[in-house]
């Protein structure tokens, strides 16, 4: 039996191997002996042939490694590179975007301007939108409306690739972070795995943009797990061949069907104008309000709100793009408190069945969907929040409401009224202290959903998680440049670097 001490030294068990051990092994050519798996050889009988053993090799040294290439990771990696760091991005999917692309939620809350119409959010989030407009992923009039910046998933992936390439980031898609390399309480690198095998990457600083704080978890940082409502997640799919003009005509003829819901709260007039101007049809969460199209058939027993692990399948949030006739459907919830591979595997299997079930219903009852089909299901379930940082400062709703200014601000967003989600004319700061794990150096959390805030909604929406990522990326670059821990960084130098990147820090 292997002891827990053995596991701690064995990278194949996801343990923590020190940089000294790795470098020593690589330097003496004894890497095979130290880093190859031991368990297979030990279990074989004397006659068994020695199978090729997995080996861990050093695959790079970087100033900053960003783990996780969701939109926060894209912001963190490009911001760190623009601040002068040598940067690698490690992402398990074969593309960037995370929830926005892999989970099929290409809909960015339009929290860029305040109620006076002044542009507050610049930097990386604005650059992504501008690149998407240039590529035709998002509509040029995105800023004339209050709703969401709804974009084409495939063109969105291209826009993110472009941002990363132009910033000179080394991109490693199809690669999962499996463990931390620690040295005296400092995170100095990551164990990763991909088609080339097991590897170690060394870093001056790591920005954890995995959303679920995988790196912080591997490094032993204190974390909270789960959070009430935010621990419900969704499995999304996209319909093709949707006649959005027919849907628009239906809403025009039945205004009471288009009722402002729980999110951005467009009025009927705003929703219709949004479509007329940009070709984006946006239907709020809680399509339960779609009485004729949804509730009447349910009352007749033609549809069930429950399907396997999914509940509330009448909670339709949908957004469509007229020119490519697609409609993203986000309906129903499943629960999961912390990342659970078996549960996630079940969810994608059951989710594919659920998508067909819901589509059959929509084809029959929602005008515009008659000839639609399931064009794609999500590569990854849309997870709202699982693990998040436990620090001695947490941004709470009560603190956020008073919009205090912080000397360690690394980003600023437009403050959102909690209910309904209206923009205000105020701003709020993202303080660095919300991104710094306790007891682990060399690490920052750069994803809004994994940072120290409660509820997750304060930082997790797409533009805001990019603000968080950008702040973390620049802080990491400045800390490495100056040879100090992120918590000891010269905050003025960070804020100056952010300003140079177009971040409004006034
Ligand atoms: C169902 C749903 C609907 C939403 N609707 C909206 C909306 O309409 N508007 C809005 O603004 N916001 C919305 N949000 C919130 C927002 O989309 C997300 O919070 C945001 O996109 C998260 O981005 P992120 O980069 O912080 O994290 P993620 O998108 O989760 O990115 C994390 C990345 O890390 C990768 N990763 C994870 N673990 C590892 C590992 N060990 N090794 C390597 N890579 C790893 C993942 O593959 C992923 O790409 C929604 C969220 C959900 C779940």
Characterization of the model:
By secondary structure, the protein is α/β, with parallel strands linked by helices. The protein folds into three domains: 1-45, no CATH class; 64-177 and 187-224 and 398-500, 3-Layer(bba) Sandwich (FAD/NAD(P)-binding domain); 230-377, no CATH class. Helix content is 33%, strand content 22%. The strands form seven sheets. Strands 1, 2, 5, 6, 7, 8 and 21 form a seven-stranded mixed beta sheet that branches. Helix 5 (71-82) packs parallel to helix 7, helix 5 runs parallel beside helix 15 (462-482) and helix 6 crosses helix 15 (462-482). The protein is globular. It starts with a helix and ends in a 6-residue tail after the last helix. Residues 1-16 and 25-44 have low confidence and may be disordered. The protein binds flavin-adenine dinucleotide.
Count of DSSP-assigned helices:
16
Overall spatial form = globular
What is the level 1 CATH name of the largest domain? Alpha Beta
Roughly what fraction of the amino acids lie in strands? 15-25%
Q: Tell me about the biggest sheet?
A: 7 strands, mixed
Put the structure in a nutshell:
The protein contains 16 helices and 22 strands. The chain has 506 residues and is α/β, with parallel strands linked by helices.
């Amino acid at each position: 039996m292997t002891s827990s001490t053995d596991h701690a030294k064995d990278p194949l068990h996801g343990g923590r191997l020190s940089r000294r051990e790795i470098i020593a092994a690589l330097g003496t050519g004894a890497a095979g002996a130290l880093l190859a798996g031991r368990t297979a050889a030990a279990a074989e009988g004397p006659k068994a042939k020695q199978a090729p053993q997995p080996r861990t090799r050093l695959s790079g040294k970087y100033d900053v490694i960003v783990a996780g290439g969701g939109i926060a990771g894209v912001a963190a990696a490009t911001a760190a590179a623009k601040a002068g760091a040598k940067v690698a991005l490690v992402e398990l999917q074969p593309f960037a975007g995370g929830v926005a692309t892999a989970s099929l939620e290409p809909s960015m809350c339009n929290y860029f301007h305040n109620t006076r119409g002044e542009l507050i959010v610049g930097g990386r989030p604005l650059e992504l939108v501008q690149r998407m407009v240039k590529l035709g992923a998002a509509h040029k009039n995105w800023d004339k409306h209050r709703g969401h910046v709804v974009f084409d998933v495939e063109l969105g992936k291209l826009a993110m690739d472009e941002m990363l390439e132009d910033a000179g980031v080394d991109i490693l898609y199809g690669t999962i972070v499996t463990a931390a390399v620690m040295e005296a309480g400092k995170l100095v690198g990551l164990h990763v795995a991909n088609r080339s095998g097991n590897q170690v990457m060394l870093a001056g600083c790591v920005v954890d943009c995995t959303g679920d704080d995988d790196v912080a978890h591997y490094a032993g940082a204190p974390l909270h797990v789960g959070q009430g409502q935010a621990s419900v997640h969704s499995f999304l799919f996209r319909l093709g061949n949707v006649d959005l003009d027919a849907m628009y005509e239906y809403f025009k003829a039945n205004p009471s069907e288009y009722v402002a819901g729980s999110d951005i709260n467009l009025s009927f007039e705003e929703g219709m104008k949004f479509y007329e101007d940009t070709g984006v049809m946006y239907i709020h969460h809680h399509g339960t309000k779609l009485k004729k199209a949804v509730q009447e058939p349910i009352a007749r027993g033609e549809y069930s709100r429950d399907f396997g692990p999914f509940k509330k399948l009448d909670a339709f949030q949908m957004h469509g793009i007229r020119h490519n006739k697609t409609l993203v459907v986000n309906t129903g919830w499943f629960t999961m408190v912390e990342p659970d591979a078996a549960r996630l595997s079940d969810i994608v299997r059951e989710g594919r069945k659920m998508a067909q079930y819901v589509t059959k219903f929509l084809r029959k009852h929602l005008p515009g969907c008659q000839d639609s089909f399931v064009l794609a299901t999500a590569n990854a379930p849309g997870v709202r929040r699982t693990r998040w940082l436990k620090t001695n400062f947490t941004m709470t709703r009560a603190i956020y409401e008073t919009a205090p200014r912080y000397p360690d601000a690394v980003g600023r967003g437009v403050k959102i009224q909690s209910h309904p989600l209206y923009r205000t004319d105020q701003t709020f700061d993202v303080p660095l202290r919300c991104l710094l794990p306790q007891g682990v150096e060399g690490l920052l959390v750069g994803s809004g959903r994994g940072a120290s805030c409660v509820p997750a909604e304060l930082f997790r929406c797409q533009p805001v998680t990019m603000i968080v990522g950008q702040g973390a990326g620049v802080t990491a670059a400045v800390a490495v440049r100056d040879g100090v821990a992120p918590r000891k960084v010269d905050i003025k130098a960070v804020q100056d670097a952010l300003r140079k990147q177009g971040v409004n820090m006034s």
